[in-house]
Amino acid sequence: MEGNEGSRANVKALVKISEETTMNASATTPLMQRWRMAARVAYIGGAILLTCALLLEGIFVRLLLVPYLREADFKPTHCILHNTFYDVRAGLQRCESRCVKLAASFPCLVVRVRFLQPHDRSWHTGYLFDQLLSFQRRQPHFVSACL
What we know:
This protein has helices spanning 2-71, 132-138, and strands at 79-86, 92-94, 105-107, 109-117, 122-128. By secondary structure, the chain is of the alpha+beta class. The chain has two domains: 1-73; 79-138, no CATH class. The longest helix has 70 residues, at 2-71. Keywords: Membrane, Transmembrane, Transmembrane helix.
């Protein structure tokens, strides 16, 4: 009988340990769920922040940095007026955001200049434009080294 009582005591001790483990596991389950939820929220929040940062970076680079780099590439030089003439091929050109009337148009005055490139000390010919938009629109006909 003594052997049975010893084994019963062992079984009771094992059951007690098992119950304590189960109670501890059930007590940590809500805590673990909170940590998992917090980890998910942090992951999704980080992904959203990263995506927004990349989108905003692309927008700001396109709107601010690219135009600055395009127009900040001017170098000091000597420029001399070579000649001016009205471009017959272009016909009448519309005003660019300067005239009240949409139908206002004027002949296109072409201004050609000669300029000295500092790095090789050679003279080149280029055309002046009043706006970058004019230069981009006329680029197939003229190459502007001044811009």
